[in-house]
User: What shape does this take?
Amino acid sequence: MYFRLVSAFVFPFLLLSNGATAQRLAHDIPYVENGHKRHVLDVYTPENRSGKSLPVMFWIHGGGWQAGDKSDVALKPKALTERGFVFVSTNYRLLPEVEMDELIGDVARSLGWVHRNIARYGGDGTRIFVGGHSAGAQLAALICIDDRYLKKEGVSFDVLKGCVPVDGDTYDIPRMIMTAEHRQALYGGKMFAFGHRQKFGNDPEKHVDYSAVTHVAKEKRIPPFLILYFSGNPDTRAQAERLESVLKAAEIPAKSYGKGDSNHSRLNDDLGKPDDPATQEFYKFLDPLVGPLVGQSGPR
Assistant: This one.
């Protein structure tokens, strides 16, 4: 891959060449006026989009809510722009600088900005898919199920066409806390100084409230879910299956898929490889929800 800087006076983009398909990258776009340095996002668009409004993949990075960056996207921008998507990757403020409710609010504000402004970059603000890895998986699932966050930004669930959380372990936070702390106690490990209990507010009511499973209900127009996980991790497997079962009980289309020959990081980094089984599940999920895509050159 090579990078060529296009003059900011002509077009405020980097042009990324990826073999057959080039992408434009608009970098560090503020989604809050005069906001924090992390109130920024990146937009990747296909170079040749034929003037069409394209579906949008809105991606939330991981990092334990304490680290990570919007640049941690591996192959996904290339793979999805080749398939006719606009790809957005967002930053948000992190723990412990802010508390969890502010962090979630940042993600919702970013998605609200995308809904209102992505047409400038060739995207369709009424066709948004939401995905995220690890901590980003919890955030993706929560904002696609608990509608309070997006309602505050003036965004209806009607614009959400699908959600793809990847290897999250906190869709049901009380169960995860119980599991992790029981494991530590059982085997004589030192209790966590800043584990999930503390990150989510050290208050059992907050643990329930920040759990996506708490807010699943019929008639909310919650989008379909594909829940990807590394099957070698019993925690992410159990959490994926728990979220899937709660969604299905509410008659919301949901599928969990576990990939065995992988790990927590590689599962996310391999998304976009044509021969990757999780990628194939990813495309099988997206394609019926989007319909025929413009300028698609990637495998179907």
Summary: The chain has ten helices and ten strands. The first strand starts at residue 2 and ends at 5. The CA atoms of residues 20 and 193 lie 49 Å apart. Residues 100-117 form the longest helix (18 residues).
